[in-house]
Each structure stands twice: as structure tokens, then as C-alpha cells.
Design brief:
This protein has about 350 residues and is of the alpha/beta class. The protein contains 15 helices and 10 strands. β5, α12 and β6 form a beta-alpha-beta unit. Bound molecules: S-adenosylmethionine.
């Protein structure tokens, strides 16, 4: 084979096996591998890990060595045996007690997103979410499909907040928000981004507005930082919105069609005080729509799980301007989510 064909085949092979990498990560988390190694306080042999997890010696050895190749574990070899410990990545993001743990989001990706992606071709063919194929629940009422059980809702809420432990500061400091005395995070879920906002701008009053089921769960369960913000319940498409100087919409517009976004933005513009603002936080496509790849994959994810899509800066600007907002500015944060501010 010529070198070009060789490298094309290499790329094909890498793409076609990528799902196995995700599954290694998901399985290791589900089995509690990284927590076992963190709690052991010393590197463990494969046999000790198998005993600790109650897993087969053969399967455990294969999983450990693959995790080491993926840089999730480090391995020390000597005296005829290998000892495994968590890598920096695993310690930071894959252990239960780390403040930047991403375990709930990984569980959500494994148990909910992955089964929906098994029907990507159907989603592309039909142009709609795939909850009915993946879980036998109707997708017409998206909210009911996404929050189809209490356990599912809690996993989603806990997963949602985890990214803000890593990127919350970057998106909330992209613009200086200290001139907005009252900040309302619409569709703010469990309130992690709002809590970050409250700690960065202690003089501001920060509130979260979300559906009653979500507010109830946020009040009942222990979400970090929740005490710094007040929660208000309602449907942002129908109910009166709380009065505020700045409205935050983080990962909300990407759930909806242009028509639903326009309806929501018009309601916000109507309630917003003159001189007030709106801060949109999203993973933003390049202006030509051809990347970054992660954002394009998120956009396909919006197809299999929601009514929406990711958008370009010009598309966000157009939606905000049509609703009456002006002075659109965007700040790239260098992480997955960028910030866009506009004023009434
Ligand atoms: C993708 S989540 C984003 C949550 C949060 N902003 C974040 O970035 O982590 C979308 C949020 O919008 C909320 N939501 C959806 N429909 C809503 C409605 N009609 N009224 C109020 N909140 C709604 C959901 O409950 C959920 O918390």
C-alpha cells in the first residue's frame, strides 16, 4: 500500500474504534477502578485490583493495561509484576472525591447519550431525537423524555454542574459582570454556574430560574454552592420571568429551534430593564460552521437528544438582534464554552 493509503487506513481504523476508548473509560468508572486506586493510597497489582473490585483477574488485567495506554493510569514494573496508580487526569476528573470530578457526566454519557447515539443514522434520516428508540419513551415532550425518572434527572443535573467546576470561572469572567446588580440564570439547573457567578461577584444578587421539578431537586439534594443563590420555579416559555439586570442563558439556546429561541429571547427582552444585558454561554461553531470538531459533535448530539443545534457567532448575533438586543460582543475563553454579551 502507498503511504497515503496507509495513513488513510490508519485514520479510518482510529475513527472506527473510537467508541471502544469511550467504553473503556465508562467501564473503568462504572466498576470504581479510579476510586479504588485513590483510596488504596499506594499502587496496586492487577490481582489486588481484581479482588478489590470483585472482577475477573483476566478482564481486570486487560482493562488496566488499556487504561495505562490511554494515560488514565501509570504503571510501574519491577520484580516481575506491574503496579498501577491513577494518572493526573484520573485523579483530577475520575475520582468521586475530587472537586473537579466528572463522574456523573460520564455516567450520563454512558447510560443515556451513548444509547441515543446508537440511532444516529435514524436521527439524521428523521431529523429528531431518539429517546423512543433508545428507551421506549416518546420524544414529543422533550422535557418528559429527558427527566423520565428521578434517578435520570439527578444524574443529568449532577453531570451538568460538573463542567462548571472546571470552566465556570473562565466563562463568568470573560466579561466583567459586576455592573449588573441582579443576575438571573435562566434554565440554570442545579445552580453551579450561578454559584460560581455569586462567588466571583459577591456584591451581585444571583438567582436561578428553572422548571419546578428541577428547582425541587436542587433544593432537596446537596449541590455545592447552592446556598449562595436563590431558586425560582417556572416555565421560561410561559411564566413571568424574574426581574433582573442580566439574564444568563448557558447551554439553553442550543436545546431549541430558531423559532423557540426567538420566542424565549423576545420574552427576556420584554422583561429586561433598559441598559440591562443578556449573557449567552455556548460551545460556538466557527463562522463557516466547519468546526471545531467537538462543537460539531455536540451539534449532532443536539439532534439525537434535543430539538436544537450548536450555532455560529453570526447566528447567535442574528437571534439576539431580532429580539431587540444590541452591542453584541463575543469573547473566546479558550475552553469548550464561549461567552456572548448583548444589551437592551
Ligand atoms: C442543557 S441544560 C443547561 C443547564 C445549565 N444552564 C448549565 O449550563 O449547566 C438546560 C436547562 O434548561 C432547563 N429548561 C428546559 N426547559 C425549560 C423551561 N421551559 N423553563 C425553564 N427551564 C427550562 C432545564 O431544566 C435545564 O436545567
Amino acid at each position: 500500500m502507498d503511504p497515503a493509503a496507509d495513513s488513510a487506513y490508519e485514520l479510518l481504523s482510529q475513527y472506527s474504534h473510537s467508541f471502544m476508548v469511550s467504553q473503556v473509560l465508562f467501564a473503568a468508572c462504572e466498576l470504581g477502578l479510579f476510586d479504588l486506586l485513590a483510596e488504596a493510597g499506594e499502587p496496586l497489582s492487577s490481582a489486588a485490583v481484581a479482588t478489590g473490585l470483585g472482577t475477573s483477574p483476566h478482564g481486570t488485567e486487560l482493562l488496566l493495561d488499556t487504561c495505562a495506554s490511554l494515560e488514565l493510569l501509570t504503571v510501574e514494573t519491577g520484580a516481575g509484576r506491574a503496579l498501577y496508580r491513577n494518572s493526573g487526569l484520573a485523579s483530577s476528573f475520575l475520582t468521586r472525591t475530587s472537586p473537579t470530578s466528572q463522574l456523573h457526566m460520564l455516567r450520563y454519557l454512558s447510560n443515556t447519550t451513548y444509547p441515543c447515539w446508537a440511532h444516529l443514522a435514524a436521527a439524521v434520516r428523521e431529523g429528531r431525537p431518539q429517546y423512543s428508540r433508545a428507551f421506549g419513551v416518546p420524544s414529543q415532550d422533550l422535557f418528559a423524555a429527558i427527566y423520565r425518572s428521578e434517578a435520570e434527572q439527578l444524574c443529568f443535573m449532577r453531570g451538568l454542574q460538573e463542567v462548571w467546576a472546571v470552566h465556570g470561572r473562565a466563562v463568568m469572567t470573560a466579561f466583567d459582570l459586576s455592573s449588573f446588580p441582579v443576575i438571573c440564570d435562566l434554565g440554570g439547573g442545579p445552580g453551579a454556574l450561578a454559584a460560581t457567578c455569586a462567588s466571583l461577584y459577591p456584591a451581585c444578587t444571583v438567582l436561578v430560574f428553572d422548571m419546578p421539578e428541577v428547582v425541587l431537586a436542587a433544593r432537596e439534594h446537596c449541590f455545592p454552592g447552592r446556598g449562595q443563590v436563590s431558586f425560582h420555579e417556572g416555565d421560561f416559555f410561559k411564566d413571568p420571568l424574574p426581574a433582573a439586570d442580566l439574564y444568563v442563558l448557558a447551554r439553553v439556546l442550543h436545546d431549541w429551534t430558531d423559532d423557540r429561541c426567538s420566542h424565549l429571547l423576545a420574552r427576556i427582552h420584554h422583561t429586561c430593564k433598559p441598559g440591562g444585558g443578556i449573557l449567552v454561554v455556548e460551545s460556538v461553531l466557527r463562522e463557516d460552521g466547519r468546526g471545531p470538531l467537538t462543537t460539531q459533535l455536540y451539534s449532532l448530539n443536539m439532534l439525537v437528544q434535543t430539538e436544537g443545534r450548536e450555532r455560529t457567532p453570526a447566528e447567535y448575533c442574528r437571534l439576539l438582534s431580532s429580539a431587540g438586543f444590541q452591542d453584541f460582543r463575543m469573547k473566546k475563553t479558550g475552553c469548550t464554552y464561549d461567552a456572548m454579551l448583548a444589551r437592551k
